[in-house]
User: Fold Zinc transporter 1 from Psophocarpus tetragonolobus.
Amino acid sequence: MMKFQACSNTISNLFFSVCVFFLPTMVIGGCTCDIEEAKKSDSSEVLHYKIGSIASVLVAGALGVSLPLLSKRIPTLDPKNDIFFMVKAFAAGVILATGFVHILPEAFESLTSPCLKANPWGKFPFTGFVAMLSSIGTLMVDSFATGFYHRQHFNPSKQVPADEELGDEHAGHIHVHTHATHGHAHGSAVPSEGSVTSELIRQRIISQVLEIGIVVHSVIIGISLGTAGSIDTIKPLLVALSFHQFFEGMGLGGCISQAEFESKSTAIMATFFSLTTPIGIAIGMGVSSVYKENSPTALTVEGIFNSASAGILIYMALVDLLAADFMNPRLQKNLKLLLGANISLLLGAGCMSLLAKWA
Assistant:
């Protein structure tokens, strides 16, 4: 498991470096499309609002991602409790709405802008194409990563010594089966730990991939607020992004909680999520003097990144979060719990969709 955590941390650090150092240089460009700019406000007052927005978004994100992690101290929020199904359904609805209602429309708007050349941007639906590719890519990463760690941790050859200790006469009567979704033992009253470990590996992969998808969008929306030059634009963005980070944090926190990472890894992931949007705001503040949101380079980079992020989040919400829980026999056999999960899903998607009115 140490190899898995080391690999996960390396991927996160590499991705973070790309977002911080590469993205700003890509979005700086000259304005080639004449669009009337919003009314500028006093620079010192705008600076105060932006600094305040960093603190507000940081607190909202940290609070959202931390609440599900308190499940160890709050029995009601324990993953084994029925209430957790409804909490997770709400969070999945938030993530699904983020992909469909927030990110994908922004990507369409960027990649179909009149500021871009008709060839090739106007002749092919790049937004849907990139979103599709990112969904397929997420599926492949999900599948290959799960298969790799199953082969590493559940190699049959590693179980041979345990059978030898029991003697050759019992070797044909005691054996353990481990699969991606279940495990069982024959001829022994000792429960198999293979299925538990397998599920933990699965949840850890899900939480890592989900965080990458969320982080991409978080940096971009942070840059959008950081480059805003009008208080009338910053105020609604500030409120909307605070709620946005809170709800997204709940979704990610629920996945991290189920993955049962060590305390250090959990803290790193929660901190990483909490800091991405504030860092994006700071980057936006730093490049605001040369950043042109309607330049072809900025529109192209934002559109492609948003499309990829939307594909990742939509896949994760539907396949890894909702399908896995809603097809769970425990949920199928309990009508009240099933209805509660469906209502919770609609509430989560509805609340996040409502925020699209402001951001």
About this structure: Residues 60 and 84 are 21 Å apart (CA to CA). The first strand starts at residue 175 and ends at 178. The beta strands are 175-178, 183-186.
